[in-house]
Write the structure tokens for this entry.
Amino acid sequence: MSAPHIESVDFFYLSMPNIEDVGDGSQDACVVRVRAGGHTGWGECEAAPLPSIAALVCPMSHSACHNVLDSVLGAPLRGPEDIHAIGTRVRARSLDLLQAAHVLSGIDMALWDLLGHMRGEPVWRLLGYARTYPKLPYASVLFGDDAQQTLHKARAIRAQGFRAAKFGWGPYGTGAPQLDADQVMAAREGLGPEGVLLVDAGTVWVEDVDRARQSLAALHEARATWLEEPFVSGALHAYAELARLAGSLRLAGGEGAHDYYMARHMIDHAGIRFVQIDAGRIGGISEAKKVADYALARDVTYVNHTFTSQLALSASLQPFAGLEHSEICEYPLEARAVAYAIALERLERDTDGYIHVPEGPGFGMQVDPARFKPYLVDTEIRVAGKTLYKTPVV
Ligand SMILES: [Mg+2]
């Protein structure tokens, strides 16, 4: 029997009816379906849908700027080595197409899901893990507009039984340091003394170490476990300097990494103690697993970055599912309705507050396009009279 080949790659542009100008990436979605050998796999790019679709199908600009589909369609899919080969080919042939990393992420994810279904195995086992360990989910939310709102949010999270929470973005870091202190202390008060508190500055200080250091005292006082993304991903010097000033407060970052090397540079040169990888951005499960292996060897804790759907959540857990000491995981709590229309299942907490990586084939999640159809954005890309993309029929 001949090897299965990739027969189709379909992108679905989903969106809420209105997109708000807030730091919430769950308002739209770019969902990927791949078919081969009678099986289907699902993935999700953590990316703006339209530019991602454009990068999937755009006309070639030159030999290092092919569209992504060119390197995927028709490729054989016998095992993990074929998925790695596809990634290598996309990176080479789409070297100058910056959106390609996002596009590859969703495709790579879908290919692992498909391979899992083909073999009747969960992806984490295909990645080499013999078993999984429970993950402690932290409720991931935005800061309130003021400290009072944050206090209410934190109390609600505690009332829902979460043992950890992360507050981020919103007004944090944009005004006087005292306002940051008020926000962080409100979060601590609402969570109670036991809750794990994480703070995400959302790159607000770009590379301004002096401004960032003014918020350190309150983070210590509130006993925050980490300060996330004080700076943009590439500002390694600023990270390293702040890490030296931060004492017992640890830095986290890495969600902006678009390939293994960016994440590796952060591990090696930014002084971070937690590396946060979005499998929907870094190039998929394949690249994320490489980072997990590297982080483990460098004694840096791997954490998923996931703010969107439960499909993305299950996918993002696979690369570190078998790492016992990478216990904490991001858990989207305020995702919009569109994010919940993608996968049928939800990863619910057990009585101890932990979630478990699914045991089912692939990501252990079922996706039914009929459920997300109400959010589908009718899209067509035409170039020189030729239709390059049209929303797949659901
Ligand atoms: Mg973040």
